[in-house]
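Board notes (copied after class):
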Amino acid sequence: MSREELLRKRIRDVPDFPEPGIVFKDITPLLQDREALELACELLAEPYVDARVDLVVGIESRGFIFGPPVALRLGAGFAPVRKQGKLPWRTVQQSYALEYGEDVVELHEDAVTPGQRVLIVDDLIATGGTAVATAQLVRKMGALVIGKSFLIELGALNGRGKLHTSDVHAVLTY
């Protein structure tokens, strides 16, 4: 069994969640399996081992699960990107469009320093809106986004295309 097959066996499909017609990719069984969790973190970090990453930025909320172990594997620090109003310190914001309306992501104003080499990590890329906003936010703060690493990519939704870069890594594509 390949490494990717081991992970696929630990991700369950939940039909009609959170609404009818959506098939939710539930990573809870993967998180409960020490071997699968360790492998997922290893594969998220693998393409960036020699990239001199200074900081891993994890996107709320499952990016908080994978981001710290990936950061440790890469010898980097970690910073969380959260939805507006969730961080306790002064923040820098980036808004982005939703299907109906707008949302905002934030980082602490001292989370990223100019010139840092940043890897963005999340569990899943679908339409790409949050990942695009996170990359814009990191760049606004003067850092260099050297990559974006996702456990799962929903290829049909073309989130990768919205990131306008070839440096997008997905461990699994559905």
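Comment from the instructor: Strands lie at 12-15, 23-26, 55-59, 77-83, 91-98, 101-108, 117-125, 144-153, 168-173. Residues 51-173 form a domain with the Rossmann fold fold (CATH 3.40.50.2020).
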